[in-house]
Amino acid sequence: MLVAFSLQQITALKKENFNLKLRIYFMEERMQQKCDDSTEDIFKTRGLQSKKERRNGED
User: Fold this and answer.
1) Residue 44, Cα to own-chain centre: how many angstroms?
2) Is the whole-model pTM more than 0.90?
3) What whole-number distance in Å separates Cα of residue 6 and Cα of residue 13?
4) Using one digit for the tens of pLDDT, what is the confidence trace for 16-38?
5) How far apart are CA 20 and CA 42, in angstroms?
6) How far apart are CA 37 and CA 32, in angstroms?
7) How far apart, in whole angstroms, are the C-alpha atoms of residue 6 and residue 12?
8) What 3-state class would DSSP assign to 59?
9) Which long-range contacts (CB under 8 A, 24 or more apart) does 43-48 make?
10) DSSP state of 16
């Protein structure tokens, strides 16, 4: 009976461990996506600033 209980506990812990790893994976994916989005915004903003500077320099 003790062995069966221990096996159930091990199985439950393995499932929990898998679920936590999966959760971490998706959280890291979201963080990376947000970081990429922010980086794109920075480059777009810098690109617009450079265009404005070039236009002002031509005047």
Assistant:
1) 21
2) no
3) 10
4) 999 999 999 999 999 998 888 77
5) 33
6) 9
7) 10
8) coil
9) none
10) H
Please tell me the distance from the alpha carbon of residue 1 to that of residue 38, in angstroms, as a whole number.
56
DSSP state of 1: -
Compute, in degrees rounded to 10, the torsion defined by CA atoms 22, 24, 26, 28. Answer: -150
Token pair listed for 12? 């439950």
CA distance 55 to 58: 5
User: What gap in Å lies between CA 2 and CA 15, rounded to an integer?
Assistant: 20
Taking the C-alpha atoms of residue 10 and residue 48, their distance in angstroms, rounded to an integer, is 57
User: In which element (H, E) is residue 8 found?
Assistant: helix 2-58
